[in-house]
Amino acid sequence: MHLTNSTSSVTVRQRRLLRDASLALGCAALFCLLATLVTGHWHPLHQFDQDWTSELHDYARDHRIWTAAVQTLSDIGGPVTMRALLGIAAAWLWLIGARVLAGWVAAQTLVGWGAQWALKLAVDRQRPAFSDPVSHAGGPAFPSGHAMASAITCTVLVGLLWYRVDRRGRTAACSVAAATVLTIGWTRTALGVHWPSDVVAGWLAAGVVLGVVTAAIELWRPGALARDVRRVNWRTRPRVQRVIVPYVRPPRPEGPPADGPLGDAPLDRDPLDDDPLGGGGADAPGRDGPSDRPDAPVH
Question: What is the pLDDT of residues 101-134, one digit of tens each?
């Protein structure tokens, strides 16, 4: 038994659980506070939503080309697109053997979709209404489904890339994800189909789903997510192809063979001939050494 390693593993696992639980509880508390203010028609929040949405609607009504571009961005970043991306990621992870990680991605998609509609029906907030709307959307407004789906999808994809790239790649991935989430959320308000507080609520609900699903899987299968991450890294790392160069025996000199220092063995004897496998052992070129697979036993 390696007590040091066991203690370290338990500490890391507990730290991850604490992080996921803190994310879920913190976002849940803020979401409940925001929902209370919305259902209670708190005047400062209500006035902020009205002013912000009205100004954006007036601008969108007077600039049709700009509005068409915003509508295109909103359609591209819709829940259907985001869930399709997660579905593709889950299928790929399943095919390469990372079954728990694939289940984590699929659970984020399904739980996020179910939570979105449960919260919408529970709060049942009306969408902004205008006499000359520039866009249309159905269903309750709170929280925004676009904002929630984009936040879940971008966070999951960044998480899958996190251990595959260096620090510069992580910075780029986080920047692209943040810009995508903010842009999609902003388009819903700019088109006049959501209040700003709906978009913020969607982001908070996404944080709850991400934290709850991750913590639940970590409690159900401790360490399985980390093992699948290592399996993905091993399966997708670049391979170095080994080139086996055949041994060419040097020409024998003419005349009677001279005795070597160990007896009758000629001096030009191939040292690899002593190996019954013909390859010089496990360390010779062209032979595989101990397996470096993530699930191989370590001696």
Answer: 899 999 999 999 999 999 999 988 888 888 788 8
Q: Mark residue 223 as left, alpha or beta (left: phi above 0; alpha: psi -120 to 50; beta: remaining).
A: left
How many angstroms separate the Cα of 179 from the Cα of each of 19, 101, 154, 186, 200?
24, 26, 10, 10, 15
Angle value at C-alpha 245, between 240 and 293, nearest 5 degrees: 30
Residue at 289: amino acid letter: G
Question: How far is residue 32's CA from residue 201's CA, in Å, rounded to a whole number?
Answer: 9
Q: pLDDT tens digits for 166-214?
A: 889 889 999 999 999 999 999 999 888 899 999 999 999 999 999 999 9
Question: Long-range CB contacts (< 8 A, 24+ apart) of 9-12?
Answer: 9/223
Cα 18 to chain centroid, rounded: 19
51, two tokens: 């002013």
Beta-bridge mates of residue 260? 263
* Phi/psi of residue 51, nearest 5 degrees: -65, -45
Alpha helices in 124-255 (DSSP H): 145-161, 167-190, 196-220, 224-236
